[in-house]
Write a structure and sequence with these properties.
Blueprint (H helix, E strand, L loop, with lengths): L1 H19 L9 H20 L6 H17 L4 H14 L6 H14 L4 H17 L3 H14 L4 H12 L4 H13 L4 H9 L1
Helix pairs in contact: 2-3, 3-4, 4-5, 4-6, 5-6, 6-7, 7-8
Length: 195
């Protein structure tokens, strides 16, 4: 009788698992997600306390926790904010720029038409230009930002960056030096430094 009971219980659990059971990611309740979100905030505060010398172990842990949250709620606006944070965290590690760009691409495709998409496009351009030394890709990102989000404050900054960025990275230094040495820009430089 015990063998029959065990077999029936095993069969019942197997059927439940195949038909109605949920994976651990799908099984997150609001309470579990709120706990995860609180854990993300605490880890982020711990990481900020280690700045300017970021604790990369904490950064890696924070990326993992952000990933859990964004997989559970991929189209939540908080997920967009967290993916942008994760992209910035990836930049703390050598040769992880592509991972950062993947996070940002998810943001500007999933959240098209929203502020987060504009932020992701702007940051993608910065990574292409500053980290990967691919100004042509940066130009594409900033042009897309200006075209799709003309009223966004970052569109004006992207337009300024387009003026000083060209296909040849060596020209960027020359343009910046020229701008810095131009007497007309001295008052702008002083204002920026005092703000």
């Amino acid at each position: 009788m015990k063998k029959l009971y065990r077999a029936a219980l095993f069969l019942l659990l197997a059927v439940h698992w195949q038909c109605g059971g949920r994976s651990p990611q799908e099984g997150d309740t609001g309470l579990e997600l709120s706990d995860l979100l609180e854990d993300i905030r605490q880890t982020e505060n711990q990481l900020l306390a280690t700045m300017p010398n970021a604790d990369t172990a904490l950064a890696a842990r924070l990326i993992e926790k952000i990933s859990l949250y964004t997989e559970a709620l991929p189209y939540d606006t908080l997920s967009a904010q967290l993916m942008i944070k994760a992209a910035n965290l990836f930049l703390l590690f050598p040769d992880m720029e592509v991972n950062a760009l993947r996070q940002l691409q998810l943001v500007y495709t999933r959240f098209a038409g929203q502020n987060h998409a504009a932020q992701a496009l702007f940051l993608s351009g910065m990574i292409y230009d500053n980290n990967l030394r691919q100004p042509q890709q940066a130009i594409k990102m900033w042009e897309q930002l200006i075209e799709q989000y003309p009223g966004h404050p970052l569109a004006a900054q992207a337009a300024t960056l387009l003026k000083i960025t060209d296909e040849d990275p060596s020209n960027d230094i020359e343009l910046i030096e020229k701008w810095l040495n131009d007497p007309k820009n001295k008052t702008n430089q002083i204002q920026v430094q005092t703000e």
